[in-house]
Amino acid sequence: MHVDGFRFDEGSILSRGIDGKPMEYAPVLWSIELSDILADTKIIAEPWDAAGLYQVGNFPGYRWAVWNGQYRDTIRSFVKGDKGIIGAVASRIAGSQDIFSEPGQRPINGINFITCHDGFTLNDLVSYNEKHNKINGENNRDGLNYNSSWNHGVEGETRDTEIQELRARQIKNFLTILFFSQGVPMLLAGDEARRTQQGNNNAYCQDNEITWFNWELLEKHADLLRFVKHLIAFRKEHPGVRRERFFTGITDRHGKKDIEWHGCQLVSPGWDDSNSRVLAFTIWASDEVTDIHVMMNMDFARLDFEIPVPARGKVWKRIIDTAIVSPDDILPEDQAAIIAESSYGLEAHSVVVLVAMKCSASI
């Protein structure tokens, strides 16, 4: 039937015995784990259940991938502007090795996501502070009360152009961070065209315009659709953002680590800075592969970020700046501008991505 795999809703319930207690070797889970028929099938679990069992990082089995709820919560808080969580942000971007620490686990064990079919859509995440579920008939008591969302000044739709521009930028920030994180990115269908549920974060019971997909959004938000397509294409072409193994910190023959963390100043990420809202990192690759430098400013002010010296024979080119208007917000590498300066000014709430490429004769 051409099914790539299966995702198990509230998968943790399958690890419970007849007494309701979790089992270390649950027969159903291990039968799936060891099945020859399912050997080439993607197996994904929502690693929690309605009774409170939470198994992100310790879900039974080794080949299971699981929804990383901690990725969602941390990145939402970071982009919203919460301060002092830089260490947690770095861990999530690097593939959550602190969570997936069991022998044999790899970055692909974690499914990174910002939004899913439960909760706010990405558009609503940047448009509402509160859930608006009265239409569901439960007096707004259903659905999560805490969503780490931010309406950017007005609840719901607005004609304020500054708020509109900031919301659009924040959506691009979320998507850029997601696609430049180690692990498997999961994109909620419709987020690429800013589908809204009008603030409803528990809309499973609605079979109407609240949950239907409006195909006109593809044209209305063609700029965002283009942005997402370029993100997907970049990730497919660059193994540095989808490593099979976790970073080790080991230096290569050029003295470069596989990843270096920074703040506004190089190699000064500010792990202990309780006021920091910024983070940058460099993924150093081999001579033949593209180096990648990502700078993230979730502060409320424009800040200058130092840029590392590119590897010998390479130049930095800016492929993404979420503060720039489309189509220059994301560009193919052969069209991207060379950045020769030693620093780059990031607008408030923006993400910039540079790639280091070998100099050509035309440069």
TrEMBL record:
Domain Isoamylase 1-3-like C-terminal: 260-337
TM annotation in the entry: none
InterPro entries with a match to the protein in the record: GH, Glyco_hydro_b, ISOA1-3-like_C
Name under which the protein is recorded: Isoamylase 1-3-like C-terminal domain-containing protein
